[in-house]
Every structure is written in structure tokens, then in C-alpha cells.
Specification:
This protein is an alpha/beta fold and 599 residues long. The protein is built from 19 helices and 21 strands. The protein has an 8-stranded parallel sheet with strand order 2-9-8-7-6-5-4-3. Strands 14-21-19-16 form a 4-stranded antiparallel sheet, with no helix packed on it. Helix 5 (98-110) runs parallel beside helix 6 (126-137) and helix 15 crosses helix 16 (392-402). The longest helix has 18 residues, at 435-452. Mean pLDDT is 89; it is low at 465-486, 493-499 and 505-519.
């Protein structure tokens, strides 16, 4: 009797990019590695979706639709190209209305995709019903998901095999059309025995020919053992990746999995020499990219605070941008309580971001002094039902701070159609109104508009061939060669009044301002009267919507920020007049830094 061939999907070009580079990879750089992948006999490849949709517009200055078209052209017509979707969030971090959910499936089919893996972080089956139906309607394979993780120590009531079987049975009872079922552990924390029992029990309650898939990350060093447990429990396929992105925060390596299956009744049925050539091609393609050290590390603490591999580097990249990376270990430790009191939503996008942002606030502002709006909306029910009821005290605090009641209905029922809104934005900016542009605006908001207007900023981290010692030498030489400077005259403007000043070299080698002859003295800028509206988290300013002198209503949007992959609106805490604006689009701010002042 021959060995059973285990199917697998190569995740290098989507989850690999997200988990290692925060999804910031340019298409021109990785396209040459695709043909080598196909030549190795790999015909099931993850090609986009998830963070690799927004990131193309946010950080790469590219269209994700163009990337998908190029991907299909490179691999040919026969590859199964798969993308990732987040239930009613599709490829954004906020819920999408029904018309945008439908447009998502339509556009991904149009641009060459074959299969969409569709999950809901809360395991609320309601959030999978309409999205799954539209995926199947547009002729795509629907891989429906049960989301997994390990609970923090001392917690129980969900995320055990019985809970997963209950969710699987709900999917079957809801008659959601699907092509396959995936058990997805984005944090890589589920203990292997639980994985085995889950797949074994699932195999008993689904039709015999059902394709069962398992997905994990190697963040905690458990990936290979989890995959083996899933296969022995009855999994049809698993997710794997190639060097240099495999392991660590990404999926286990293909070559390692081939080795682990030796002596068993299973095989990947691949030529390891061809896989090696494909890996070498991919390594050459990625040689200029900065590999965050945390992406390649084993992080045992995630078993206590389940941080997904795909979100880990996105968060650390943002913390590097905002100069707060030194707080990362404290935030991860604080996540354990945030998960425990938040209702046990699976730590996968977008819920993992809610957890991380709330943990950050608990570290920097004091425990539960400030509720992150997204975390608050989750515990209040606006994203769906959490697996268990959230902590009553946290629900009360969230309700008070956000000024919202608990919500128990279907989140889709309170969302306004998205196509008319996106169409209006395109028309106001004299942009073509087509399905692609409508979806870009609906899913990427201001960053999508910036891209379409040609204002996108590329933010991809690469290394250079220049060594640090050479940089230091150049900097020192330049400083030594700087000529002495005498007094220089400038005109500065304070409160719309021009003043002449002279800047002269000071005694200590620094510079001092000297009033010019006959110049009016420069007054110190007066502090604006009113209440400062502070940044709720560290992040980047996407758009400032007010000017000094504007009259605003309570809850009017003042500033749009991007923090930890998410765009969020900072709203006016009261009605009043804007007396100062402290930031501009493109600025990077820290938590509690004033954005505007309102009186």
C-alpha cells in the first residue's frame, strides 16, 4: 500500500510576506521566484488577500489587483491561487456592507484567483454566511474556517475540541456552501494534542470526501508537531513556506516537513532538489529586504499571550516607526489579561490588533484607563458575538467611554451600502468610477484615495550594501569638513506676523537667535485655549480634517490615524471651536501627544 499524499499550499508569497516583512514587499522583487516555484511542482500558492491587499496601497505604491494579474500571468492558468478573507471584514479591518462583500468576491474572481479562505475571528457563524455565499456565487472555491488558538493560563470555556466541533456543526447546519474546511491557528499556540483531537473529531462529522486543512505558524516552535498531529488526525492538507520566510512567525518549511514525514505513512510527493532550487531563487529575490530579528525567533511567550505571526511583525514595524519598540515585551505580557477579559475572540486579524492596541494602552496609560475603540466595540458586540461573554466590568467601562450600549443583533444589518459612498468620493476627486476603484476606496479609505490620486508613499524596509562602519565614517568626515558659518538673517512668521532674526554661532559651538537691528522682538507663541485631543495610540497621521477656527460638533471626525495596520478616526470629545492643530498628514505621533485643541 502506497503512502498517502498530503496536499499543501505554499504561503511564501502572502503569509510569508505578511509574517516577516509586515506585508511590505514590492511585486517586481518577488516575481522572478514564482516560475521556480511552479518548476518545483508546486501548484497551490497563496497569492494575496489579508494584509497583502491593503499593504500594496498603504506601503508599496502598487495596486493589489495589478499584482494579482501579474501573479496569474507568471504561474500560468493551472495553478490554484488562493487568497485570504476575514468574513464580513473581507480584506479590511472594519466591517464591510453586503454590496462590498459581494464586490470583493467578484473582483478577486476577475483578477485570477481560484480559492478564498474565509474566516471570522470571533467564530460567529453569522459572519461567514453571506460572505461564503457570495464567494461560491462568483465561481470561487470557498474554504470556510474554524479559527483556533490556545487560551491564556487559567482560562476555559472555549477553544477546546468541543468548542470547535460546535462551531463546525453550526457551519454545516447553516448550509454555507464550501469546497473545503480549514482549522486556522494564526498564533501557532494550539497544543498538538488538541490539534489531533480536533481534526480527528471533525473527520467523524463531515462527509468522507471532505477536504480538511490545517494552518499554523511556527512562532512558538510548534509548527511541525502541530502539522503532524493534524495529519494523523485526518487533515487532507497543510500550509508550508520556503526559505527565507519559513519558520519563526511564518509557516513551517516545506523541506522540513518532507523530512518530518519520513518513516510515516504520509508524503508530500515532492522532489526536494527542485524545492531547494525554488528556495534559492526566492532567497535571491529577498536578499535586499530587512528581516526583523523577531520574525525569525522562537517566541515561547506567545503560548501565554497568543500573538499571531502575521500581526507580530506588522506591530513591531509600526513600533519601530514610532520609536516604541522597547515596549513590545510589556505589551505582549499585558495581552494575556486583555484576551482573558475580552470574550476569547481568536487572536487573528482584526481581533489580534484590538488585543494588541488595548494591551498597549494598558501599558502606557494604566490598566483600563483608556479603552481602544475597536476593542470596546468588540466587547460590546458590534463585530458579532464573542465565544464567551466578555468581563462585565470591561463591558461597563467600554460602554461608558464609547457612549454605546451593548449590541446583540447582526452587524451587517447596521451597515450602510458602500458602493454609493465610494462612488461619491471618486466623483468628487475626478477619478474613474469602476469596480476596482470602488473596492479600493471602500477597503482602503484615505490611503486608497491617496494611491488613486498618485500621492502614495512607498515605505518598504530594505538593507543596503553599505556597511554601518562606512556610514559612520562618512558622517564623521562630513562633520569635520563642515565650514564655519557666520551670522545668517532669516524671516520667521509667528501668528501670521513676520519678524527678522539673525542666527549666529554660539560660544558652545551651537547656534543662538539674535534680534536683527530694528527688528521687533519675537514673542513666545501663546498656548491655545481649550482641551487637547490626544492621540489614542502611537501611529501615523493620515489626514487632518479641521483647521484653526472651524466649529465642530461633538463626535465630529478631527483626524484620521493609522496605527498597527488599522485606520481609526479621532473624534471631537465636545462641540466647540478648533483653536490649534498640532499635526499634519504624514506626521508620526506617540500616544497622548496632542493632535488638536478644541475650546
Amino acid at each position: 500500500m502506497g503512502k498517502k499524499v498530503i496536499k499543501f499550499m505554499d504561503t511564501s508569497f502572502r503569509d510569508g510576506f505578511q509574517s516577516v516583512f509586515g506585508a511590505r514587499v514590492l511585486s517586481d522583487d518577488f516575481m522572478p521566484a514564482l516560475q521556480a516555484t511552479v518548476d518545483a511542482g508546486i501548484t497551490h500558492i497563496e497569492a494575496g488577500g489579508g494584509a497583502r491587499f491593503q499593504s500594496l496601497f498603504f506601503y508599496c505604491g502598487e495596486s493589489a489587483f495589478d499584482m494579482m494579474d501579474r501573479f496569474r500571468a507568471e504561474v500560468g492558468p493551472d495553478c490554484d491561487l488562493q487568497t485570504l478573507a476575514r468574513g464580513i471584514n473581507v480584506v479590511a479591518l472594519s466591517q464591510a456592507p453586503r454590496d462590498i462583500i459581494d464586490l470583493h468576491a467578484k473582483m478577486f474572481k476577475k483578477h485570477g484567483m481560484t480559492t478564498i479562505r474565509n474566516f471570522d475571528a470571533l467564530n460567529d457563524v453569522r459572519n461567514l454566511m453571506y460572505s461564503g455565499e457570495r464567494i461560491a456565487h462568483h465561481g470561487l472555491n470557498h474554504q470556510v474556517v474554524v479559527s483556533m488558538m490556545e487560551l491564556p493560563p487559567g482560562c476555559s470555556g472555549a477553544h477546546d475540541p468541543a468548542f470547535y466541533m460546535d462551531r463546525l456543526q453550526q457551519i454545516l447546519d447553516a448550509d454555507i456552501p464550501f469546497h473545503s474546511i480549514c482549522f486556522k491557528d494564526a498564533s501557532g499556540t494550539s497544543n498538538p494534542r488538541k490539534v489531533y483531537e480536533t481534526l480527528k473529531q471533525a473527520r467523524k462529522i463531515v462527509p468522507e470526501d471532505t477536504i480538511l486543512w490545517f494552518h499554523t505558524h511556527d512562532t512558538a516552535g510548534l509548527g511541525i508537531s502541530q502539522n503532524l498531529a493534524a495529519i494523523e488526525g485526518g487533515a487532507t492538507g497543510v500550509d508550508l513556506a520556503k526559505s527565507p520566510v519559513s519558520g519563526g512567525t511564518c509557516q513551517p518549511d516545506i523541506l522540513s516537513m518532507i523530512h518530518a514525514l519520513k518513516g510515516t505513512d504520509y508524503t508530500l510527493d515532492l522532489d526536494y532538489e527542485k524545492v531547494l532550487l525554488a528556495s534559492e531563487s526566492f532567497e535571491r529575490a529577498m536578499k535586499d529586504y530587512f528581516f526583523p530579528p523577531e520574525a525569525k525567533m522562537i517566541s515561547p511567550t506567545v503560548t501565554l499571550s497568543p500573538m499571531p505571526g502575521g500581526a507580530l511583525t506588522a506591530n513591531t514595524m509600526m513600533m519601530r516607526d514610532t520609536g516604541t519598540l522597547h515596549l513590545y515585551a510589556d505589551v505582549i505580557k499585558a495581552m494575556s489579561e486583555v484576551v482573558a477579559r475580552g470574550g476569547f475572540g481568536t487572536s487573528v486579524t482584526p481581533v489580534s490588533q484590538f488585543y494588541f492596541q488595548q494591551a498597549y494602552l494598558n501599558v502606557t496609560q494604566g490598566k483600563w484607563k483608556k479603552i481602544n475603540p475597536s476593542y470596546g466595540n468588540m466587547v460590546l458586540g458590534y463585530f458579532g458575538r464573542t465565544p464567551v461573554p466578555p468581563d462585565e466590568e470591561i463591558v461597563r467601562i467600554a460602554s461608558e467611554q464609547l457612549g454605546k450600549p451593548v449590541f446583540t443583533d447582526d452587524p451587517l444589518d447596521i451597515l450602510e451600502p458602500g458602493i454609493p459612498k465610494a462612488t461619491k468620493i471618486l466623483e468628487e476627486n475626478n477619478l474613474p468610477v469602476n469596480d476596482e476603484n470602488i473596492f479600493i476606496i471602500a477597503s482602503c479609505e484615505q490611503k486608497g484615495l491617496d494611491f488613486l490620486l498618485g500621492n502614495a508613499v512607498v515605505n518598504v524596509r530594505k538593507i543596503t550594501d553599505e556597511k554601518p562602519e562606512e556610514k559612520k565614517k562618512k558622517k564623521t568626515s562630513a562633520a569635520a569638513a563642515a565650514p564655519a558659518t557666520g551670522p545668517r538673517s532669516y524671516t520667521i512668521t509667528v501668528n501670521n506676523r513676520p519678524y527678522n532674526v539673525v542666527v549666529a554661532e554660539g560660544a558652545g559651538g551651537g547656534f543662538q537667535a539674535v534680534p536683527a537691528a530694528g527688528a521687533a522682538p519675537v514673542p513666545a507663541p501663546a498656548e491655545a485655549e481649550g482641551t487637547d485631543v490626544d492621540a489614542p495610540t502611537p501611529g501615523n497621521i493620515v489626514k487632518v480634517l479641521v483647521e484653526v477656527g472651524d466649529e465642530v460638533a461633538k463626535d465630529a471626525t478631527l483626524v484620521v490615524m493609522e496605527a498597527m495596520k488599522m485606520e481609526s478616526e479621532v473624534k471631537a470629545p465636545q462641540a466647540g471651536k478648533i483653536t490649534a492643530v498640532h499635526v499634519s498628514a504624514g506626521d508620526t505621533v506617540q500616544a497622548t501627544e496632542p493632535l488638536v485643541t478644541i475650546a
